Amino acid sequence: MTSHLKKVELHCHLEGAAPPALTESQARKYGVDTTSFMRDGVYLWNDFAEFLVSYDKVSEVYRTEEDYALLTETYLEELASIGTIYSELIVSPDHGERIGLGADAYMAGVSAGILSAKEKTGIEARLIVTGERHFGPERVIKAAEYAAKSDNPLITGFNMAGEERMGRVADYARAFDVAREAGLGITIHAGEVCGAFSVADAVDLVKPARIGHGVRAIEDSELVKRLADLGTVLEVCPGSNIALKVFPDFASHPLRRLKEAGVRVTISSDDPPFFHTSLKREYELASEAFGFSDTEINEMTRTGIEAAFVDEATRKALLAKI
Ligand code: ADE
Ligand code: ZN
Predict the structure, then answer these.
(1) Does residue 2 belong to any structural domain of this protein?
(2) Catalytic, out of 192, 222, 282, 284
(3) CATH of the domain at 264
(4) 132 CB under 6 A from ligand 1?
(5) 1 lies in some domain
(6) Residue 169: C-alpha distances to residues 36, 190, 204, 205, 222 (Å)
(7) 73 catalytic, yes or no?
(8) Does the pTM exceed 0.70?
(9) Residues 257-297: pLDDT tens digits?
């Protein structure tokens, strides 16, 4: 039972959190045929590459500033209803450009959703701008420049998501320099689809405060020690990892081993309905599949706040709630 615990989420892709019922109503509104990407309220995909395609198809039914406000508010209200006090949403202004809405209108919609969820529930949220690796280094650099130039106070971090097998981290390092110079918090997807080398590349070339997933660092014990020594925080998403077959089952998932090796770990849901999960379920899994005590789970939640990309006054207020 983890329903009484306060929760924090550092790693969730906004479009990846789209509730299937909302996607269906959006699809009806725009006359979109959903049969190629959802059936009986379930998003369809078979492997990581298909997941990325399905993700883009779902995203296509969110088209206007209002659609993005509704999506954001809906997800944050769901989080607040399970005791979540803080959320970082991974968003893609570049996606806003690609769908013809425009990056500014996309971000305005998302920001409006955050403000109304905060007004209704008190949930605190920030935005991590992401570049998507499979669209190439130029687009990722453009996303970093957008985040760096923005005066939106909700944008506090930069990430890179997408197809990890495309290129090497070095090809994208410039984007992280731009984001770092602008004072944004740095996190990067690594060690999810690719192995420990990808995490080592990220650590060496990007020097991130946090890594999205990072779980395949477990394949290299020296690297695990390095992550522990550096204090790099892993945004671990166990349900996502099992759904994508990064590990065959929870018994072989390295969350506990990483924590016991001194790596700072947190738990998140990634793209919850795609992976048949939710932040509520991730907390339940921490207890039931990994056997963590409430004290250990609270430790991970506290790590999440310590590593959050927020100002110090907000961090202090959040820590006081645990
Ligand atoms: N984009 C959305 N979800 C992702 C994931 N789990 N890995 C990489 N890119 C993503
Ligand atoms: Zn992710």
Answers:
(1) no
(2) 192
(3) 3.20.20.140
(4) no
(5) no
(6) 32, 9, 9, 7, 20
(7) no
(8) yes
(9) 999 999 999 999 999 999 999 999 999 999 999 999 999 99
